[in-house]
Amino acid sequence: MKLMPELDKEIELVSEILHIPKVDWARNVLARQVKKELEEHKSFVAFEYMKGKISRAELVKFLGMKDADDVDYIMKKSKEGFKAAKELAKRLK
Amino acid sequence: MGKILLAADTSAIISLSLTGKFHLIKKAFYLNSPMRVKIELEEIAEQKDEIGRVAQTILDSNIIRFHKLPSSLQSNTGEIETVNLANELKAEAIVMDDIKSMKKLENKTNIPIWFSSFVIFTLCGKKILTYKGGWSAIEDMKTKRGWKENLIIDYAKLLFEQAEK
Q1: pTM to 2 decimals?
Q2: Which of A72, B37, B65, B109 gets the most CB atoms within 10 Å of its CB?
Q3: What ipTM is given for this predicted complex?
């Protein structure tokens, strides 16, 4: 992994403090950040679908079938919960 | 005004406590949880972060009534015990924010399982909370969770916005 010399020096320092090889430390940080970014993109795509801006086919293309099914499940359960809450509130007034 | 008997798992209790609206939630709901949830909250309270502090606050209060289940209904997961408790109490609803557990447990009970946003929706329906207050409470539930769990919150906000139009 090629890094700017200043950054490389700083990572060297952190790896000394933590007693972790600097490549392992950098790899872990990178993996965490990549995961976070990927989740942000997934979340964005799923929310576009929830707003009706993209189709189910597009959602499946971007997230895969399993995650797309979970997004549909969240929408279904939330809508049902919203309706049930309204009915319950009316009944208890 | 009648109150609603509710069984809640750890994820829902944490979400609801993050709203800071327990004083209002108590007006409409009786909140019940099994001892396994109490144990999970105690474990979370050991963490020295925001969620840990929230868990400790719940344990220090009398907001939740914790029940010890008969040994045949005990489990090492809070979600399963919550469903068993709901069946025992004949609760009106179960709340949890764990999609995987919800899907798995829906066929173990006839009691509906909802996301914790259901509680906030009900408070708005009963005019205990305004729609603006409800939206803000739901926003406060968003914390360091997985992207799918955060989608529950985002979609609840979307439903609120659509209801207001």
Answers
A1: 0.86
A2: B37
A3: 0.87
